[in-house]
Amino acid sequence: MSTNLLIWIILSPLIGAILNGALYFYNIKKQKISEKCFAIIGTLTPLIAFLITFSLFNRILDEGIVFKQNLFTWLSVGNLNIDMAFLGDNLSIFMAMFVTFVGWLIHIYAVGYMKGDEGFGKFFAYFNLFLASMLILVLADNPVILFIGWEGVGVCSYLLIKFYYGSKENVEAANKAFIVNRVGDFGFLLGVATLFFALGQIDLSFASIEANLANTTNGWLVFAGILLFIGAMGKSAQIPLYTWLPDAMAGPTPISALIHAATMVTAGVYMVARFHFLYVGIENIGIFIAYIGVFSALLAAIIATRQTDIKKILAYSTMSQLGYMFIAVGLGFYSSGLFHVFTHAFFKAMLFMGAGGVILALHHEQNIFNIAKHRASLPIISFTFLIGVIAISGIPPFSGFFSKDVILAAAFQEGHYLIYAIALFTAFLTAFYMFRLYFIVFVTPNGHKKEYVYTSKTITIPLLILAIGAIGAGFLNFPAIFGGSHFVDTFLSQLNSKTITLSHSTEYILMALSVIVAALGIFVAYKKYANFDLNKPELEVGFVGRKLYVDEIYEAIFVKGMKGLSKLFDKVIDDKIIDDTIMRISTGFVNVGKRVATIQNANVRFYAVFMLLGMTFAFIYLYISLGL
């Protein structure tokens, strides 16, 4: 069904970005615009986007329709036609719902967090643009328009990570994120190009691609599926393109919350789900995706157990949870993977925002042991942070239990017992390192009286709203064995997603095992850290603490390797071969030119001699050739 509302979901935050950007530049000279003006624009426009999305969501529920808006033909070259078109089906509206809602709450939080910052207006311009880019990505009707949003979130993350560009560390972190993501983006572009040439598509819409898949060979589909997933590896920080994610914590905490909860890193999971019709036909690639996901989840969890930076611990937890999502979509349980994206948005946004509140209270201290030594009384933040930690650990009835448990059950049902075992062990590590974080920051005795620190309502109110989601969001896909209706699975039925068909007794056993493993992780964390001696803190050292030296390995192989290769090209191939060959050839031509120039000396008698010689040779030739 045609509608004019889809574009306004995108335009709302985009207009906010333009207004805030223009006002910020005006304010640099005039200094007449208050933070309140920037805040109103910055928070109102995401709310408008959410309300429009919610209205379309209700119409889909009532009428079961699909919305589409074709603005114009953006590009038409030969057989390639690309429309600037947007799609509002169940999948895109489902994603847009929590992207706009959680994004709106993070914008409200940012008002309190960024208060007094000289770049307040600029921050909200970038923030609104980030949300608009994610909405372009989600609502795109074809992969080329999706790629515009894909690149948009990449550019905005770069701008926000290096927001405090006076720090060399921040700029390097932004450059790292930008460059690593370009590797993935190149794979994504090649994947789209492969589909175009393989299908001979005139129309590159998702519906048209799906309808024409039968016209190409399986080999091309496999190649396209791998290339597209390389893009997801970069954007969603999976092995081997994950090293940018922890460094991205250099930006202000609100951007960390937005990247990890509602935008950017979830884009890779969404993209694989959007191409579900492609991956259904190439199950081997799906299994490869699942294995990348489970090993990424395990690696991130292992590294997180020894980190001391509060935001980096949460960053690695995001990478780990994304791994669970890729397990689900890789095995064909697309709605289950997206359900975990949904629940994760609530508790991960809340955790990052809570961490930001602690960082503000402790004057931007991020080391968890130093935070513990100077602990402040932050009752609301402490309460909501605990809810988030319980949710991500998979304890019922919190949302993380329902969304993570179905992924574990999916791996077991499909017979991938190695994936199941690794994912279950990762669940233990998740409960351990998250409660390690909570016990150190909020519980471990430090011998000092806690002083109450006032926290702005723009920080605490969004936290409380997200806490409700972290507790109750799981009930939207309540399992049938408890009398639930699997609302999310039903709503996303277009994905041809697999569902759990295990016997009830098996499901009960798997659920119990999942809870026991999580409880064991909490118990180990409690025994070691609930009364930890802060005078002998853990140090960020050792093999695990140094992130398994992956950054150093990448530095040695790729960075130094490329530098060495560039020097080889510069000094040997460029200077010694290419330049030297060209110079020799040019010198030869110059020498030939000098010899030829000797006959161009303006001497009439010299020219007459050559004319005489020429005529003589001509007569001789004629004499011989005519036989005279």
Low-pLDDT regions:
none
Strand % is under 5%
Indicate the overall shape. globular
Q: What strand line-up does the widest sheet have?
A: 1-2
- Main β sheet profile: 2 strands, antiparallel
SSE series: HHEEHHHHHHHHHHHHHHEHHHEHHHHHH
Question: What structural class do helix, strand and pairing data support?
Answer: mainly alpha
Average pLDDT confidence is 89
Q: Give the end-to-end Cα distance, rounded to a whole number of Å.
A: 95 Å
Record field, number of beta strands: 4
Helix tally equals 25
From the alpha carbons, calculate the radius of gyration and give it in angstroms.
Answer: 31 Å
Q: State the share of residues found in helices, binned by percent.
A: over 70%
Give keywords.
globular; two-stranded parallel sheet; single chain; mainly alpha; 4% strand; 72% helix; two-stranded antiparallel sheet; 25 helices; 628 residues
Characterize the structure shown.
With 628 residues, the chain is mainly alpha-helical. Helix content is 72%, strand content 4%. It contains 25 helices and 4 strands. It has helices at 6-30, 35-63, 90-113, 120-139, 143-161, 168-199, 206-211, 218-235, 244-247, 253-261, 267-274, 276-279, 283-304, 310-330, 334-361, 368-373, 379-393, 399-413, 417-443, 457-472, 487-491, 504-529, 542-545, 550-597, 604-626; strands at residues 67-77, 80-88, 376-377, 451-452. Strands 1-2 form a two-stranded antiparallel ribbon. Strands 3-4 form a two-stranded parallel sheet. Strand 1 and strand 2 (80-88) form a beta hairpin. Helix 1 packs antiparallel against helix 4 (120-139), helix 8 runs antiparallel to helix 11 (267-274) and helix 10 (253-261) runs antiparallel to helix 15. The longest helix is centred in the last third of the chain and has 48 residues, at 550-597. It is globular. The termini are far apart. The relative contact order is 0.07.
